Every structure is written in structure tokens, then in C-alpha cells.
Amino acid sequence: MTKCFSDKSSCVLAASAVMALSTGLLSLSATHAQAQQLCSEYTVVRGDTLSGIAGAVDLRGGFQFLFDANTDVLANPNLLEVGQVLKIPCADGSLPSVTRIAAPVSASSVPAATNRAASFVTASGYAPFTDEDLPEGGMITQMVSRAMELGNPDQEIRIVFINDWGSHLTELLPSGAFDMGFPWFLPDCSRVDILSEPNAMRCTDFDASEPFYEAAVGYYTLVGSPYAGVTEYTQLYGATLCRPDGWFSFDLEGERLVAPNVELVFARSEEACWEQLQAGEVDVITYDALPAEEDYTEMGIADQITDIPALASSVTLHVFTPKDNPNGRAYLDMINTGLEELRLSGEWFQIVRSQIQETNQN
Questions:
Q1: The pTM is what?
Q2: What percent of the chain has pLDDT over 90?
Q3: 254-261 — which CB contacts under 8 Å span 24+ positions?
Q4: Are strands 206-208 and 305-307 parallel, antiparallel or unpaired?
């Protein structure tokens, strides 16, 4: 079972999500996708969602993998619009024959290299994103290396694994021991005034790259629970929520799912959350969608669990640099330039596919 530690989320993939029909966008249904096949393109119609389409074609990796294949079309995994053309990956995880060519980058648009190596800190234990035992150090590690190479091939870099996640943002980056750290989730900084100090610090003390990856966060309860059909976060007020210890909480703070509105329990492990849900000690569990779905399936309680799709949300992984780092903005410009090339060329999805396959085989 793949597990997450510290700030991490989305150890492999997947999730389900919906949105209100009244928005004019789309909600969960597999009906219109029944005729679709793997390794094809699909035009969205009213009533579709990513989870419905993925389920209809039995796509391995589900909702999240379909979103990963279409980041050039979709701005948010929860929102589909009628007429969007989506690529449905093939059985081997590759994309159907759609050629995407990166726009040429002129020399004048490439950020200038500094006269010193740019230093990055990350840690292991967060497959498929970062782990010393994975090829190239994991998905985000590989993307960071390639983005810097594409952003400025003359810029030297070094990436160091220090397996104490808690020290990265509090000591190693603020002290100047490293220029940048990854992968970190970024809160909605427009709502920084309602975040706790440790979460607000990500907005006030650090600059962030463009997002490298977007992951889904799910909400789950028991079948038949009065919370099973809720459609608004405020309908959870009065409930007891469980999130595994060490996971981020800024998304809950942003939706005011904190005391006194709810009782928030940080359990010692993912399994402990599910055990407390079965025992009636908590009402709702929320954390990264695929690990959650893997966990309750492996525990043999899938028939007892239902997700709350209207509450599904997403979070994004970034490279952070301290705002007072004199080279920080220049390094982020290099990263963002290279990341754009990765996405335009299709290499971004190739890295995602290969790293997920590698993780699933281990």
C-alpha cells in the first residue's frame, strides 16, 4: 500500500467529483461515455464528468489519469464544458496519436543563468512524486530537472534528499541552506487572512512556481450516513472530520471546516481514520482521493463507503523559494519556462505515465 508522509498527498492517482448542474457545467454521469473506447478522443456533452468517462472505458488510473492526459484543455479536474475534446489514454497508458509540438523558445526569452549552482531540497517516501529509489528520483524530481534544463541548459543544479520534511520550510529554506524546495502544496493565497500561521507562511514567506501537478482531495462517509448527500461544505458543520496526521489542512481552513464549525481529528494513520469511521467516532474522512480509495478497498470495506462528490476539491504541487532569496525569482523563471515546454511537447504526460507505471509495479 502506498503511503504518504508530512505535507504530501495523492500517492498515486484517482478520485470522483461533481459540480452543480445550475452552473451550466457538468455533473457526474457515465451515460454519455458508454460508447467511448480507450485510445480515442471524446467530445464532452452535458451530463459528463471525468470520473464518468473514465469509468465507462475502464481507464486504469481513473479520474486523475484522464485529467493528467488533458491538462492542456482542462483548467480544473472538477469542471467540464460542453464541446471540450478530451484524449482518452490507451491501454498501455500512452496517448492516442495526437502530436503536440512545443513552441520554439527564443534565446532572448531564456532567463539568464547565475554563476552558482541552484540548490533544491526534497525528500524520499512520497512515491510517485519524490523518492530516491525511483528512476530520476520520482515524477516531480524528474520534472524539476528537465524544466531547469529546458529553462536554461547553462544553469547548474543540485538536488539533495533530506528525509525530514518538517525542516524544509521552517529551517533549510529560510536559512539559505537551499535555494528551493519541492514538492509543496500551495493554499489559496487570496484567503490567507483565514489561514493558520503555518499555512499562511506558504503565501507570505515563499514564492511558488507554476503548478507541476494537480491532485484531487476526496470526502468519504458511510453508506446511509446523513452526510452522504451533502452538496455544500457548510452542511458538514457540526460533524466530526478525520484526516490522517501529517497531511496539510489549509484546504479545510479555507472552507472554514475547523473549530468551532467542525471537530477535526488528526488520526495516527489512514487506517485509523477508517476504523474510527466504522466505529461511529467520526462522521467524514477527507484526504487525497486515490490513497483513500486504495486504503478502504484494501481494508475490504469498499461496500460500506460512499464518497461525497460535490465536496471534491483539488490542490497543486509547486517548487517553493524564499521571498528573500536574491536568485529565487530568476530560478522560478527558468523552471516556469521549462515547465511550459514540458507541457506543450507532451513530455510532461510521458513523465507522469512512466513514473506511475514504475510505482505501481513496485
A1: 0.71
A2: 53
A3: 254/187, 254/188, 254/191, 254/194, 254/195, 256/194, 257/233, 261/236, 261/237
A4: unpaired
